[in-house]
Amino acid sequence: MSLKNVNHQKRSFTWSMEKPSAKDYFLTVFIFVVCTLIGLLFQKLNFTDTNIVTIYILGVLITSIVTDGYLCSVAGSFLSVFLFCFFLTEPRMSFKTYAVGYPVTFFIMLISSVLTGALAAKLKTHAKLSTQLAFRAQILFDTDRLLQNAKGETEILDVTCTQLLRLLNRNITAYVVENGTLSEGKLFSGEKEDTEDFLIPEEQQIARWVCENRQHAGASTHHFPQAKCLYLAIRSGDNVYGVIGIPLQKETLDSFEYSILLSVINECALAMENAKNALEKEKNAVMAKNEQLRADLLRAISHDLRTPLCSISGNADMLLGNSDRLDEATKHQIYSDIYDDSEWLIGVVENLLSITRLNDGRLKFKFTDQLLDEVIAESLRHISRKHDDYKIVTDCEELVLARMDVRLIMQVLVNLIDNAIKYTPPGSVICIRGTKTDGKAQISVEDNGPGIPEEMKSHIFEMFYTGKTTVADSQRSLGLGLALCHSIIEAHEGTLVLTDHNPHGCNFTFTLPLSEVTLSQLPII
Description:
56% of the residues lie in helices and 14% in strands. By secondary structure, it is α+β, with helices and mostly antiparallel strands.
């Protein structure tokens, strides 16, 4: 703390003793000319000399306020005595005086003026320093807040350099480590002058040395002192995230500016480390999720596909070994079981292939304009043979055209209808509706089965989620159908929602964008 105070005092003294400008000289002369004119007026009005001396002391105060440093106020103190003695004492226009006490008056006036000017200049200097310290504190606070909200190393570096530019009022060069190597330099400049020489190959080579050796280098250091900039590594521990360059051609940094610079760079390094850790954490979370999905998929396949495969294998073995002893009705039932199990396996494989291609971005969409009633009718021809045990009705408006990949939308309809068949008892009513609603084509699949419990509704479109509902034929779904449907409808810029069907049952409704074509352009499936 004491070192900082000493530096403040040294800087203040240096700042105060700087050479006044021509404007400061002009203001000083002008102020004391006005004070002299006021003094002459006071003499004509028979005011005492004390009043006139007060006017000159006021002039010294005003000079200290409107000019920089001590020099003008001290010079004004001597000038006030000179003008008072020359113009306002008898005999005028000379430095002689008839009064015995005037030399003492002049001396006291000089001492008072010098002290008044020095104190006023010192107060002004302290006020400027206080303003500067408050500004720096605000910059540090803003830097901390902005770094907390910054995303990614590039944005963090931009925030840091912008704040350093405001704080130090100097150009800033910045480099960031990308894939283990230092990137090309970037200049942050608040001046219009040419500053391209800060990014010349020699300067960039010094920045790379700083990155590799994790040491300060450049101007005002023992390493590469001929450089135009002082280079500091942005590092946390052994990790280097970038390099900051501060031009030091005209003046060096005092210890207070240097400590603030290090504080900002350390905050930048900490923010970059946090961003890196957050990115790694996110990657690990994604990898863990992918591993969980793979584990769920393998577990579901090994557990749930074994039942239909064993059934197919057992039935085929029975036909091979005991075909002569089986009657036609039994054979027909075995053939039907083999067919149903193989159809279920085909549907599972189709869903697996589709959802894998969709997630990998390899699924190619072929959008065409299709009539809803024709798409629904074609979908019904692809559903399980078990639909004979259910009452399936359709209610579709005529000439409703929608923009879709017809193959994928048919897969959505087949999955939704098969889902209704699986989870509703035989004899249930399944209704497929197609309407034009709110500027979109809307298709809904309704059933009057037992419905879905509330605790399952929020997970119904998640992959591999099957809930605790038991399927009538004891086969469990892999939990891919509804997840696939949801992804396909989202790719069509539509929505798929689940609502309750009164008085009981489920209603799956999805939307598709409408098409506008003439009747001569109506498609034929």
